[in-house]
Amino acid sequence: MSGSASFFQIENAEGGGAAVIVCEHASNDLGTMPGALGLSAEQCLAHIAWDPGALGVAKGLSALLDATLIHATASRLIYDLNRPPDAAGAMAARSELHDIPGNRDLPVAQRLARTETHYIPFHAALFALLSRRLARGRPTALITVHSFSPLYFGVRREVEFGIIHDADDRLARAILARRTGLVTRLNDPYSAADGVAHTLALHATPLGLAHAMLEIRNDLIATPRAQRAMADRLAPTIRDALREAL
Amino acid sequence: MSGSASFFQIENAEGGGAAVIVCEHASNDLGTMPGALGLSAEQCLAHIAWDPGALGVAKGLSALLDATLIHATASRLIYDLNRPPDAAGAMAARSELHDIPGNRDLPVAQRLARTETHYIPFHAALFALLSRRLARGRPTALITVHSFSPLYFGVRREVEFGIIHDADDRLARAILARRTGLVTRLNDPYSAADGVAHTLALHATPLGLAHAMLEIRNDLIATPRAQRAMADRLAPTIRDALREAL
């Protein structure tokens, strides 16, 4: 991979907080893809290309919790970093109601190239970052930050804040037990059984790390101001929950 | 890590077989450690430093199954690649009846350096190798090859061939169901509950790969000839089991 561009960023690498924050769906950048995969400008702004608002919340939490943040800088339609390379959704040809023409019948060489350019370096960097923390004896929890659409296949979702876990529910339940003023549910609107917890399964579970995937309804974090407010709202809850779970 | 020596090797990288074989405890080389960690020559040959015979069997299986093999080239007393960086056993100060003077009260900088030199590159390479196979749509199973001591804390072990699994027992049970002529047991002399299945938990389980950890009693594979014979004995069993489990 040496010499090639990287499609992720690490911020606050030496942050003193216990959380490591991950935002796999931070970007809707399709810049490297010919013809933007055949999508309209409107589709590129929609949740199929990224998790709108998630990066703003993740950055806010990183600042408030002094947490290291790793986030993608390319759209999940090029490679969904929260899916393994053999999953249909890793390079989705269809997302909810939308066809993704540029992902249809992808040749194996293209699947391999995207895996080598996006998936492997991102997760290798996260693995190295976590391994170094454990070698140094630092308390560590893994928190992934996502957003979800208020309408999905035409159905309105009531939940505002979903907390999802993989094998270990310590941190998720500690967050759930605290008041945020949001309509909050455990393993809703998705759960690990839907295959949405790949990053947690790949990193947190084998290393025995407390972990949670935070899903925020994207109409609540549509502007930078709303994203900052959401980070302000969630940070004390997460700080207390980390203290309980670690 | 660029420019530093690597402490693993990959053989038969383009092997056509479904198995990827891992041998974490292949080597007793303490070459880079000052004073060989304070151990006698006899201790360096003993099972505390490596899994005697395991690499010979792993190479034999790699040849017979046309399987890619990745193996360590440094002793597990420097870093036990089958343990996460925060485990006491990753850089053990005591192994069975033996003190390891050079690992006593290791400074954090030394734990970090060994993690960066041994653990991270080995598992990053294995992760990349498996991810590329999945991107290419290749059927893939993960098999780790180990050996164990006939005497442990003075007690004689009757089992000759142990088959250990992490979350998914498909391949382990498919091997167990076949005749090898060996005294064979499932999850014996260890099991995942003892923390010995880290490589499987880190790579096979999150990627949904069929997997097994093979443990062979080391008095049965003490010579190159015996190692080849063991590979000849096990290869047809594993080939059939892979066909059933994949």
Brief summary of the model shown:
Chains A, B: This is N-formylglutamate amidohydrolase. By secondary structure, chain A is α/β, with parallel strands linked by helices.
Write the layout of secondary structure elements.
The structure is a homodimer of 246-residue chains.
Chain A: E1 8-11, E2 19-23, H1 41-45, H2 54-65, E3 68-72, E4 94-95, E5 98-99, H3 108-135, E6 141-148, E7 151-152, E8 155-156, E9 161-164, H4 170-176, E10 184-186, H5 198-204, E11 210-217, H6 224-245
Parallel strand pairs in A: 2-3, 2-6, 6-11, 9-10
Antiparallel strand pairs in A: 1-3, 4-5, 7-8, 9-11
Helix pairs in contact in A: 2-6, 4-6
Verbal overview:
Two copies of one chain form a homodimer. With 246 residues, chain A is of the alpha/beta class. Chain A contains six helices and eleven strands. In chain A, the strands form three sheets. Chain A has a seven-stranded mixed β-sheet, sandwiched between helices. In chain A, strands 4-5 form a two-stranded antiparallel sheet. In chain A, strands 7-8 form a two-stranded antiparallel ribbon. In chain A, helix 2 crosses helix 6 (224-245) and helix 4 (170-176) crosses helix 6 (224-245). The mean pLDDT of chain A is 95. The interface between A and B is medium-sized, with 29 and 29 residues. Chains A, B: It holds the Pfam family FGase. Chains A, B: It comes from Paracoccus simplex.
